[in-house]
Each structure stands twice: as structure tokens, then as C-alpha cells.
Specification:
Blueprint (H helix, E strand, L loop, with lengths): L9 H8 L3 H22 L3 H17 L10 H20 L12 H7 L3 H4 L5 H15 L4 H12 L4 H8 L3 H24 L2
């Protein structure tokens, strides 16, 4: 679901903004999948996703009177979800180092593959292993770097879209992405040298 594709009837939005509890409930049901998707992509620990989703829903309801447009309502909700996720990541402060000993046997075997072999990954198990390894490496980054890498490289959003979702300048996003990719490469090289 694209955030711009979220269609909320103007009458429902207006009623919710005016404090109608039934309209607020209907609005929450309508935006929940969008919020959950954005939070799940930023917050990787499953135990924390529901807490952050609830926090986003609360913010959306409490700040509903601040929505005026002109951007689509779904975009506004997405921005609240991304910034809330970023704030949550900043509060965590724990980004433990990942060593080769922390990896499963399958993840270590994945690291031993050459880049040419990585292009041939097609199995669901291999893709899951690669995604898990990538998640571990991204978790080593600072929160802003995590958000930028996930939005730019994993969701394949443009720099402009990331800027609109985060409120950060395009140049800041480009610099952050460049530094983050370098850090990811360094972390990967460090893991490979530990084999």
C-alpha cells in the first residue's frame, strides 16, 4: 500500500478531527496497516513494534487537528510513523557489535560466498539469511543512518521522498547515506576477516 493511496473520506477525517470517537476508531482501523508497515520496516525487534505502533496511533489521534494538508493524509501519517520510529531508535542507544561468533552457521556460510555467488541467491531460505544478516549490520548504525538506509536502499525511495518523510534536507540524506554505506562495508569486511 502506497501512503498516497490511502483514501480516507473527508467526512470521516473531519468527524475524527472534531472528536467523534466512532470516527476516530474507524480512522485508526483505516491507517493501522500503513502505520504498522512503516514501523515494522524501521524497528526490527518484533517485541517493540506493537509498542511503537501504539505510540504512532496515539500521536496521530492527538495531533489530528494539526493536519491541514496539502499533502495527502497518508503521507502525513507516514511521516509521523517514520519520525516516531526514529525517536524510538535514538532512545535505545544500545548498538552492540556483531562478531562472527554472533552469527549462525548459515549466516557465516553466507559470508563465505563470493559477490558473484551472491547474485545467484534465489531460494527463500538464502534470502531470509541474507536479510537477517543485513538487519544485524544495519542495527550497528546510528538511528538516523538506519532510517536513511532502510528508506533509500531497502524501500528504494528517492532522496526527495526520504526528505519529505523525515524533514531532513536532501544533502543531509545524501551525506548520511554515503557514510552509512561505508560503515556497513567496514562492518562486513570486519566480519569477513574474523572467519
Amino acid at each position: 500500500m502506497d501512503d498516497d493511496a490511502l483514501t480516507i473520506p473527508p467526512s470521516l477525517l473531519k468527524a475524527a478531527q472534531n472528536g467523534d470517537e466512532s470516527a476516530c476508531s474507524d480512522l485508526v482501523v483505516a491507517v493501522y496497516p500503513l502505520i504498522h508497515r512503516y514501523v515494522r520496516r524501521q524497528i526490527r525487534r518484533r517485541d517493540d513494534v506493537d509498542d511503537v505502533v501504539q505510540e504512532v496511533i496515539l500521536k496521530v489521534i492527538l495531533k489530528l487537528g494539526q493536519y491541514r494538508g496539502p499533502q495527502p493524509f497518508g503521507h502525513w501519517v507516514s511521516r509521523v510513523a517514520v519520525t516516531t520510529s526514529y525517536d524510538w531508535l535514538r532512545k535505545q542507544r544500545v548498538r552492540p557489535a556483531v562478531t562472527a561468533a554472533d552469527l549462525s552457521d548459515e549466516e557465516r556460510a553466507m559470508l563465505e560466498k563470493s559477490p558473484a555467488d551472491m547474485g545467484g541467491i534465489s531460494g527463500e531460505v538464502e534470502l531470509d539469511l541474507l536479510a537477517g544478516l543485513l538487519d544485524k549490520l544495519i542495527a550497528l548504525l546510528h538511528p538516523r543512518e538506519q532510517v536513511v538506509i532502510r528508506l533509500l536502499d531497502l524501500e528504494e525511495r528517492s532522496v526527495r521522498e526520504v526528505s519529505e518523510l523525515t524533514g531532513w534536507s536532501e544533502s543531509k540524506i545524501k551525506v548520511t547515506a554515503h557514510r552509512s554505506r561505508k560503515k556497513l562495508s567496514d562492518h562486513l569486511n570486519q566480519l569477513e576477516s574474523q572467519r
